[in-house]
Design a protein that fits this description.
Length: 134
Amino acid sequence: QPTLTDLAQLLEGVRAAGLPVHTTTHGTPTLPPGRQLTVYRVIQEALTNTLKHAGPGTTAAIDLSYEEKGAVTVTVTDTGTTTPTRPTQPPGGRGLPGMRERTALYGGTLEAGPRPHPEQGWRVHLHLPEETPQ
C-alpha cells in the first residue's frame, strides 16, 4: 500500500502527464499507515479527476498541514473548469464515495466541489482529526 513517501513518485507521474502541481507542506508527517494511505488516496483521486476533467492549461496546488497527534488537513485545488462536465464520480470509478468512505474510517470530513466565485476550478478538502486511543 502506498504511503506518504510515495507522494513524490505520484506527483512526478502527474507532472509528466502534463499537470503542473505545486505543493506546500506544514509540519512533519507522523501518521500511522492507515492515515497515510487515506491522505495518499485522496490526493491521488483529486489529481486524477483534475487530469481527466479540468481541461488544458490547468494547474493544481496541494496544501498539507500535519498537526499534533495524527491530525492532518489536506487541500487540493485546481484552476480548471467548474462546468457540469466534471462528474463527481467517473463512470466505473469509486471517486468521491471512495474518498468519503476512507475519510469516515478516521472520523474525518471531506468536502469537494467548485471553488467559490471569483475563483475558478475545483477544491477537495480533507481533515482527519487527532487520533483517539482505541
